[in-house]
Specification:
The protein has 448 residues and is of the alpha/beta class. 40% of the residues lie in helices and 15% in strands. The strands form three sheets. Strands 4-3-2-5-1-6-7-8 form an eight-stranded mixed β-sheet. It has a six-stranded mixed β-sheet with strand order 13-14-18-15-16-17, with helices on both faces. Strands 9, 10, 11 and 12 form a four-stranded antiparallel β-sheet that branches. It starts with 9 loop residues before the first helix and ends with a helix.
């Protein structure tokens, strides 16, 4: 550390990560905020390589797979994702393990000190203090933790967009862009092309670029092609073919993906839609290493890579399965996987659904509601949560359009704990989907 840091207790670090108001000003949020904080810390991110993963759908899983593959190839890899399902330290991993509470508190302490020093200097110079968002703080904290752990490479998941995201304050050597969907529309735009433009900004001259299969929609592909041409970059195109689909939970999916260096046919104990993300991660890891991967090690790395919140059984009896699908495209992939394992809708568990107001909620409801025999509506604790009453109205309208009885909307609860308690009391098996925050709150309530 280039300066002394007052170390915060873990609980205070968590509180600060949730609300940075005590070190924030009214200028921003800006990318320069994170750049100046990293400069104040003498650029911890320059002590290791950075890889950036942007996109709407599949970016968390792709980032996880990439970090696991690189770890298997003998590198000390770190991973930065968001949001957490239950606890803030989950956003940061080193060598496949969540960082300790002490390391998390230290990273936040260092980031806070950097922010305070930067803002004090700006105020002394007659400039407005920066607005330091929680994501700014946590990104800087993660980079400090990774540098002090002497990692070789860190895989950084973009939080929002790409152009102005805090992870873009680093200088990645390789980037991947996964699927593009309608996401954070109030900030990024309300068309796929507008959103793609914000995410394509991570493509820059001299960087290896992998485009996932979810970038092939015509308006999105046009944006990606234009950005690559402008940067003088020839992108690598991820691809896959599923050879064997899982027929039930716990079955393996076998897929093939072809790169410029090899053909891989790994087995993953995941739903079939994860093959697309694994293929993107394979291309990304290969591009970074500039060589082919060891196929045996690759399969082991993918097999042991956890994907929390993705088709995740968090309780066996009565069943509670969560999935973090949060837009129509990811919901369609989830339902497709469900179709393979449980093809009869009437035999499926009850859907517990919640949503965030800045998502395509009507699209989410249109996909999820027909896939389940009964629906329970709830509301997460997020400040961006759609109210349970408003969401219930959309669900009721969708059921009516399907010609289904009103009784298929079983209940409406104002909070996730209330909904879970009621469903548990009846022994009702449940699938929770519609937003990442719902997956996290359900997992947290059940001690995961």
């Amino acid at each position: 550390m280039p300066f002394a840091v007052e170390e915060l207790p873990f609980d205070e670090a968590v509180a600060l990560a949730a609300d940075t108001g005590t070190i924030s000003g009214d200028a921003g949020p800006l990318l320069e905020t994170v750049i100046d904080m990293l400069d104040e810390l003498e650029r911890p991110d320059r002590h290791f390589d950075c890889i950036q993963v942007a996109g709407t759908n599949g970016k968390t899983s792709t980032a996880r797979f990439a970090a696991a593959i690189l770890l298997g190839e003998g590198l000390t890899s770190a991973l930065y994702t968001s949001p957490q399902l239950v606890r803030y330290p989950e956003r940061m991993e080193i060598g496949g393990r969540v960082v300790s509470d002490d390391a998390f508190a230290h990273g936040v302490s260092a980031a806070r000190a950097a922010g305070e020093r930067v803002n004090a200097r700006r105020i002394a110079a007659g400039e407005r203090a920066y607005t330091i968002t929680p994501f700014d703080l946590l990104t800087v904290a993660a980079l400090v933790i990774f540098a002090e752990a002497a990692v070789d490479v860190a895989v950084l998941e973009v939080g929002l967009g790409g152009r102005w995201d805090a992870t873009s304050a680093t200088d990645p050597v390789a980037v991947a862009i996964t699927g593009i969907g309608l996401d954070h529309m109030r900030i990024l735009g309300d068309t796929l092309a507008q959103i793609a433009g914000e995410k394509a900004a991570v493509i820059k001259p001299g960087r290896a670029v992998v485009l996932g299969e979810g970038t092939h929609e015509s308006s999105v592909q046009r944006v990606m092609d234009e950005r690559c041409r402008a940067c003088g970059v020839v992108p690598l195109l991820a691809n896959h073919v599923v050879l064997e689909r899982p027929k039930r939970l716990g079955d393996a999916c076998v897929f093939s993906t072809t790169t410029s260096r090899a053909i891989y046919t790994p087995r993953i104990v995941k739903p079939a839609y994860q093959a697309q993300n694994a293929a993107c991660a394979i291309a990304l890891a290969e591009a970074y290493l500039a060589r082919a991967l060891d196929p045996v090690t690759l399969e082991e790395s993918l097999a042991t890579c956890p994907t929390p919140g993705r088709f995740d059984v968090v309780r066996a009896e009565p069943l509670v399965l969560v999935d973090a699908c949060h837009n129509p495209q990811s919901c369609e992939m989830f339902v497709s996987s469900l179709d393979e394992i449980s093809p009869v809708v009437a035999e499926r568990p009850t859907l517990l659904i919640a949503a965030l107001i800045d998502k395509d909620v009507s699209g989410i409801v249109d996909v999820l509601v027909p896939a389940f025999p009964r629906v329970v509506v709830t509301q997460t604790a997020s400040t961006r949560a759609m109210t349970a009453r408003e969401l219930a109205g959309l669900v009721a309208d969708r059921l009516a359009a399907l010609g289904r009885p009103e009784g298929d909307l079983v209940a409406v609860y104002g909070s996730v704990p209330e909904a879970l308690d009621a469903l548990t009391a009846t022994g009702e098996p449940v699938v929770a989907a519609g937003t990442i925050t719902l997956a996290g709150e359900v997992a947290g309530c059940l001690g995961r």
